[in-house]
Amino acid sequence: MKIQNEQALGMTPNPMSRILLVSGNDATNEEIEALVEASPRIMVFPIEVSALKTNLTPEAGDLVIVNVSALTEAEIELLSDVRAAVPHMPLIVSSPALTADETRRLFKFNVHDWMPKPVDGKDLIESIFKGVRFRKTYNNRVHAVVSSVGGVGATTLAVSMADIAAQRMFKKRSVALFDLDFSLGDCSYAINMINGYNLASVAAAPHRVDAEFIRVIQKQHENGFAVYSFKRPELNSEINGYELVLRLLDAVTIEHDQTFVDIPYYETEWKDDVLSAVNTCTLVTELNMSALKHTVDLIDRIRELRGKDFALQVVVNKYESRLFGQRIGKSRLKELFGDVPFTYLPLASAQIGEAVDRGVPPSEVAHRSRFLNALQKYMKSMELTEVSA
Fold first, then answer.
1. CATH second-level architecture of 141-381?
2. 176 close to 225: Cβ distance less than 8 angstroms
3. Any idea what DSSP says for residue 210?
4. Which of 45, 262, 54, 20 is nearest to 159 (CA)?
5. Which regions of the chain does DSSP assign to beta strands (E)?
6. Other Cβ atoms closer than 10 A to 37
7. DSSP character at residue 217
């Protein structure tokens, strides 16, 4: 029955996860193979200890399991060799119960998980998939674009950021735009890419969301970025809406190198979860005290979720320079925002108005406008790629 339902949705099973298995003295590969054989999505590749240097490489698999019967000096040496070969690959260690000192020694190897024997097969499979997911998302970046209030132009910015990333900054990488405003699905309307797929059809079984499903529902813009935008207001109150949205976002971000997420100003049950997971956050506001106060509230909220080191910035959109200065100057903004950087984007009513009327990104109206140049300059200041420690 499960297979029939997946076929009806036009989906295929999730991609295979390649697991490299290394067993130490007095431990056997069969112990682990018997536990994971229940999952058709896992392929196990045993590696002999004598062949570690040639067969254990970052490209050979998605995750490595080291199965040992104790944690003596021989096993410590084995773990050292494994980490030397694949320093960043998720590592699961299966062993008998450990003493406190042995546990401290084990976790110096940056293990993803430790599975004490006897190992439960279900727990091991779940840990494998979590580790594989972590590796696949390690280099992928997710950028939240958040409206402080309605009408500040965050959707236009999200569309333009995805467009700039695809056309100017990451031409050879995969870029996506994900619209979390299911009440309006305005990203799709702004660029005339309305998606009629009924997400409610999978709301009852969100676990079926996988890479193949994501490829089925995506729209591909001619400028080189994928679009996920749906006008499905019922998802905001759907019983399984929370899980479905997070699984969709999870699958999308695994699929693409750079994902820009348009987050509406109103409250949703998944908002904190998304803000807790993204790599950067751009708060979009306007130069009036009402919008700025809401922006300060968001800053406090995100700081509480992510801490002061998180890549958070404010964009003051629709900015008009004035001969005799602004009612709210830079000093006042610094006072309001504290140590959070902010930048101005110029008002571009004619360009954006025409773009919306035509259903195209603003770059189709004026490719090198002040607005787009300022936005690209801002994007270069973001942590679009992983910052080295």
1. 3-Layer(aba) Sandwich (3.40)
2. yes
3. -
4. 262
5. 17-23, 42-46, 63-67, 91-95, 113-116, 141-147, 175-179, 219-220, 225-228, 258-263, 280-285, 311-319, 342-346
6. 11
7. H
User: How far is residue 138's CA from residue 308's CA, in Å, rounded to a whole number?
Assistant: 21
Domain locations along the chain: 2-136, 141-381
**Model confidence at 3, in pLDDT bands (50, 70, 90)?**
very low
What SS3 class is residue 281?
Answer: strand
| CA–CA dist 148, 197 (Å, integer) | 29
Rounded mean pLDDT, 277-283: 93
pLDDT in tens, 228-252: 999 999 888 887 788 888 889 888 9
Q: Residue 77 corresponds to which tokens in the numbers above?
A: 């040496």
In the numeric block, the tokens 């025409």 are attached to 354
Query: Could you tell me the pTM of the whole model?
Result: 0.69
Does residue 241 contact residue 124 with C-beta atoms inside 8 Å? no
Please give the angle made by the CA atoms of 243, 246 and 251, to the nearest 5 degrees: 120
Q: Give the distance from CA 273 to its chain's centroid.
A: 11
Which pair of structure tokens corresponds to residue 34? 């018997």
What amino acid occupies position 105? R
| Residue 67 CA: distances (Å) to CA of 92, 233, 269, 354 | 8, 49, 40, 62
Could you tell me the two tokens for 215? 């490829």
The tokens describing 281, both together, are 């956050």
Q: Which of 335, 272, 328, 329 is nearest to 298 (CA)?
A: 272
Distance CA 31, CA 95 (A): 11
Cα-to-chain-centroid distance, residue 337: 26
Is the pLDDT at 10 greater than 50, yes or no? no
E strand or H helix at 225: strand 225-228
Rounded-to-integer distance, Cα 249 and Cα 206, Å: 12
pLDDT tens per residue across span 244-277: 888 898 889 888 989 999 999 999 988 998 998 8
Radius of gyration of the chain (CA): 24
Query: What's the fold here for domain 2-136?
Result: Rossmann fold (3.40.50)
Report residue 271 CA to chain centroid gap: 14
**The two structure tokens encoding residue 189:** 């309307």
Phi/psi of residue 311, nearest 5 degrees? -75, 85
Domains 2-136 and 141-381 share a fold: yes
Q: What backbone torsions phi and psi does residue 66 show, to the nearest 5 degrees?
A: -110, 120
